[in-house]
Specification:
Elements: H1 13-24, E1 28-32, E2 37-40, E3 43-45, H2 48-51, E4 53-55, E5 93-95, E6 101-106, E7 109-117, E8 120-125, H3 132-145, E9 156-157, E10 162-167, E11 172-177, E12 183-188, E13 194-199, E14 204-208
Parallel strand pairs: 1-8
Antiparallel strand pairs: 2-3, 4-5, 6-7, 7-8, 9-12, 10-11, 11-14, 12-13
């Protein structure tokens, strides 16, 4: 079906031009699975040049593609401690150029990539089932794509199993343990202040700012 890609709507030149322009001028784009998928004019992903990857569906097998090295260290993957779970993933994804930074791959196929397009950025993820590590991966991908890496540490929790919600007007913040086990986390307010918090399983604790 087309629910996950948009289908032939991605052949609309005006839509493509608007998104390309927006990213080129500093916007961010994150694609998961088969983003902008519609076989048209030699491309399967119609925004392949923005995402930095495309999917091989049999029409360009004559092109020689050499394996590209993984970029082991990147802002997006800094909190990864276990193999990333891409769920069912996506087969036959390849990098378009050396500019595409491959952050995770298996059997020569790209699972996670970061790309710059003009002054903007794009991230491709082959699949993203829910788990604590993937939550943090997505958070980092959002901040990187938006070129706002520094803002991530404003009301930030060091433990991916927890969340923090701040209410400056009420001068209160809450820390939430989403796991079934006791956890410890460090909350960064973004103003140089750090607070260590111990939480019981599924506990929510409130604090004054």
């Amino acid at each position: 079906g087309t629910a996950w890609s948009g289908g032939d709507n991605w052949q609309d030149k005006e839509v493509l031009a608007k998104i390309r322009e927006w990213v080129y001028m500093g916007g961010g784009l994150i694609g998961i699975g088969e983003p902008t998928a519609s076989q048209y004019q030699g491309r399967y992903f119609q925004l392949a040049e923005v995402l930095g990857v495309d999917k091989e569906i049999g029409f360009s097998l004559s092109y020689t593609r050499y394996p590209k090295p993984l970029q082991r260290e990147h802002f997006i993957t800094q909190d990864v401690t276990n193999p990333i779970d891409f769920g069912e993933g996506m087969r036959s994804i390849y990098a378009l150029s050396d500019q595409t930074k491959i952050l995770a791959a298996s059997e020569g196929e790209v699972n996670l990539a970061a790309n710059t397009f003009g002054t903007g950025r794009a991230v491709y993820i082959a699949g993203l089932p829910y788990n604590f590590q993937n939550n943090r991966l997505l958070l980092r991908a959002i901040h990187w794509a938006a070129s706002r890496e520094r803002e991530m540490k404003i009301w930030f929790t060091s433990n991916p199993k927890t969340e923090v919600a701040a209410y400056p007007d009420a001068e209160r913040f809450a820390v939430i343990n989403n796991s079934l086990h006791p956890v410890t986390t460090i909350i960064s307010t973004g103003e140089g202040k750090k607070v260590e918090v111990l939480l019981k399983p599924m506990e929510i604790r409130w604090f004054d700012i």
